[in-house]
């Protein structure tokens, strides 16, 4: 299995992993033979890459840290809540929102159970399945990442539930923003950005009224854009005034936002996003929390196509958590761009003169201007 840019996908290729719509429904299932019509549908849905089954990489398995059905339940919980919040019938909205906390506890419990069963994978996340600009998938991704950090810090189940539910709901206030702002496909103006900042307070005011949602989870929503040096919002808190949960979610929010495409830009490379976070340690976030996060992220995810300094092109087949920058690479093309007759594995940890210089599908990634693209 390997990750392929949609621009390089050809009719007849077989899908290696399920593709979801932005609201969590299955768009195309595993094993589907792609046609021109299906590829066009993926493009219209905003999908920029898919996993493809390839005989040369058949033994490379990109495992999902949470099951597809677990993700689907979580995404549907978020979608249902948004529909409840925006219901024009005030009485129906009030009655349905009483169940909100319970729905999210159940959805996150499934996520937590999956993560507990996959502790080895959680120890070093090579993929979290979906990089989508959708609020639904972003919320689930941030919850998975934040929980992995919480587990590494030794949080108990109650703490993980508080952190995880807060992470799933960190952006819920955005549904109360003007619809034209949320749906806008261009970069926000400074005036629009100031309006968007209200989502932290709007979300907190909603969550703190819910019986089954911890006040700490609500404070994650309120504080996830606060920064250690006081430069954040909405209150300009600094240092220990910011809850640890909110800092963790802030870190995960930035990473997932930067490594997911936006209508006005492509995704950033994982190493670029990690470099940004490394530079934020002790400045925007606590060093210990940034380091705890970075320990869980593979710079070169399994299944991604990479280019070596020799010009050879291959697919990352295995990642050693202690040497994530030097994975094992399945070589598919030689330095001249020709297919190799018999693909072979190179362990970059044992070949110190070899190193990865980038990804094959450069068109997937945006370069430069990252400071302007941090989450609002």
Automatic annotation (TrEMBL):
Domain HD-GYP: 113-309
Domain of life where this protein originates: Bacteria
Pfam family, one: HD_5
PROSITE patterns: HD_GYP
PANTHER family cross-referenced by the UniProt entry: CYCLIC DI-GMP PHOSPHODIESTERASE PA4108, CYCLIC DI-GMP PHOSPHODIESTERASE PA4108-RELATED
Official protein name in the record: Phosphodiesterase
Source organism of this protein record: Brevibacillus reuszeri
Lineage start: Bacteria, Bacillati, Bacillota, Bacilli, Bacillales
């Amino acid at each position: 299995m390997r990750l392929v840019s949609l621009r390089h996908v050809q009719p007849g290729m077989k899908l290696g992993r399920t593709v979801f719509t932005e609201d969590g429904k299955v768009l195309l299932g595993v094993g589907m033979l792609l046609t021109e019509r299906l590829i066009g549908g993926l493009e219209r849905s905003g999908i920029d890459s898919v996993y493809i089954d390839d005989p040369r990489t058949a033994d490379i398995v990109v495992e999902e840290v949470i099951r597809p059905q677990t993700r689907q339940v979580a995404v549907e919980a978020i979608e249902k809540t948004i529909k409840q919040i925006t219901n024009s019938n005030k009485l129906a909205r009030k009655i349905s929102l009483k169940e909100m906390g319970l729905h999210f506890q159940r959805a996150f419990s499934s996520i937590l159970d999956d993560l507990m069963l996959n502790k080895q994978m959680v120890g070093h996340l090579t993929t979290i399945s979906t990089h989508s600009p959708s609020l639904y998938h972003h919320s689930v991704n941030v919850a998975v990442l934040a929980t992995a950090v919480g587990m590494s810090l030794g949080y108990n189940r109650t703490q993980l539930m508080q952190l995880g539910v807060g992470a799933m709901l960190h952006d819920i206030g955005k549904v109360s923003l003007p619809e034209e702002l949320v749906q806008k496909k261009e970069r926000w103006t400074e005036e629009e950005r100031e309006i968007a900042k209200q989502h932290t307070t709007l979300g907190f005011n909603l969550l703190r009224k819910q019986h089954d949602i911890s006040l700490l989870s609500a404070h994650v929503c309120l504080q996830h854009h606060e920064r250690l040096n006081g430069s954040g919002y909405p209150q300009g808190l600094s240092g220990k005034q910011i809850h640890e949960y909110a800092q963790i979610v802030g870190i995960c929010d930035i990473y997932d936002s930067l490594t997911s495409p936006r209508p006005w830009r492509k995704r950033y490379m994982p190493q670029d996003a990690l470099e940004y976070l490394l530079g934020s340690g002790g400045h925007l976030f606590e060093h210990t929390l940034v380091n705890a996060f970075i320990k869980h992220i593979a710079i070169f995810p399994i299944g991604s196509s990479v280019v070596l300094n020799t010009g050879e092109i291959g697919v990352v087949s295995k990642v050693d958590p202690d040497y994530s920058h030097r994975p094992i690479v399945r070589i598919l093309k030689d330095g001249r761009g020709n297919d190799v007759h018999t693909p072979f594995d190179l362990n970059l940890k044992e070949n110190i003169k070899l190193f990865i210089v980038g990804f094959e599908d450069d068109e997937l990634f945006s370069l430069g201007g990252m400071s302007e693209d941090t989450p609002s």
